Amino acid sequence: MGALQRITFEFFPPRDNPGRKKLVDNVAAKLAQLGPEYFSVTYGAGGSTRDGTRQTVLSLMEAGYQAVPHLSIGNDDTAELLDLLDEYRDAGVTHLVALRGDQPSGMGRNRFAHNAEALVKLVRQHSGDHFHLTVAAYPEIHPDATSARQDLDFFKRKVDAGANSAITQYFYCPEAYALYLDRCASAGINIPIYAGIMPITNAESLFRFSEKAGADVPRWLRYAIAEHDNDSDLTQFGVDVVTRLCERLLTLGAPGLHFYTLNRWGASTRIVQNLTPA
Ligand code: FAD
């Protein structure tokens, strides 16, 4: 598949065993046909999906897939985090996505004791170079940052602490990504920065989630989304728009694309197939 070999898919951990089985047997099996590098599994705010994330990762690995757990340091207990690192190492996990994490609801902003840089340092201190560490990056600037410069400085600190690669928050403006890659290169950041891709399938959840994550849905796109009043028309429109976005990102030199699948395979599959030369 040439340039498209570097595709990754993100899941959130299902609530129970039947949900996990469905994810592995249906969704992952379908997406696996596209030849992804790995499936990553998110980690709920404050460690709320600690077991769910671990079990989903293990189920994916048992089915023969490469699985990458997300891990956040937010307000988690350090001893529990270190135990989890050991468990992952013993289970054969070799790659983690290291994050500060989202705030559990009701806690407001800026009450974190830690940041992702501290987690990267902790993992390197505890597990040496065992894990490949991916961190988050924000072409449109993290909402907690006071300036683009500060945001880039925090990103560089994670890289200097030992991060090997990054995935961006999703965005719909390719020029923001182009500028970000230039700024990273000027700052001496040389790790691969995969572009985070959010397929458009449901207007309400996209707007709600984007608001929470500080991801920008441009005005022209909001209006265009609002014109599609059923999910199937919207999905077709979204596949077209996001395919064009991905094409542009690959032209700009994106080393890989990371799809936020929301545990669905349809839209991501159609986008990847559009990008794949016949
Ligand atoms: P950090 O790198 O720590 O930085 C975020 C901001 O914190 C910085 O811009 C800065 O304003 C501030 N900051 C950082 N370092 C310092 C410092 N030393 N001093 C002062 N301020 C500082 N969330 C989850 O809960 N679970 C997940 O599984 C998950 N997966 C994600 C996957 C990807 C690819 C992305 C892009 C995001 C994901 N998130 C997840 C969301 C992420 O946790 C939030 O965006 C969170 O608010 C920031 O996490 P971070 O790792 O980028 O934080």
Describe the overall structure.
It is a single chain. With 278 residues, the chain is α/β, with parallel strands linked by helices. It has a single domain, classed as TIM Barrel, CATH 3.20.20.220. 47% of the residues lie in helices and 14% in strands. It is built from ten helices and eight strands. It has helices at 17-32, 50-62, 78-91, 116-127, 148-160, 174-186, 203-213, 219-226, 231-251, 266-275; strands spanning 7-11, 38-41, 67-72, 95-99, 132-137, 165-168, 193-197, 257-260. The protein has an eight-stranded parallel β-barrel, surrounded by four helices. Helix 1 (17-32) links the parallel strand 1 (7-11) and strand 2. Helix 1 (17-32) crosses helix 2 (50-62). The model has no long low-confidence stretch (mean pLDDT 93). It binds flavin-adenine dinucleotide.
Can you tag this structure with a few keywords?
alpha/beta, 8-stranded parallel barrel, 10 helices, globular
Mean pLDDT: 93
Give the overall shape: globular
Proportion in helices: 40-55%
What compounds sit in this structure?
flavin-adenine dinucleotide
Order of helices and strands: EHEHEHEHEHEHEHHHEH
**Beta-strand share of residues:** 5-15%
Output the CATH topology.
TIM Barrel
How many domains comprise the coordinates? 1
Continuous helix count? 10
Distance between the termini: 10 Å
Radius of gyration: 18 Å
Largest sheet: 8 strands, parallel, barrel
The CATH architecture is Alpha-Beta Barrel
Unreliable spans: none
Secondary-structure class = alpha/beta
Strand segment count: 8
CATH class: Alpha Beta
- Main sheet: which strands, in order across? 1-2-3-4-5-6-7-8
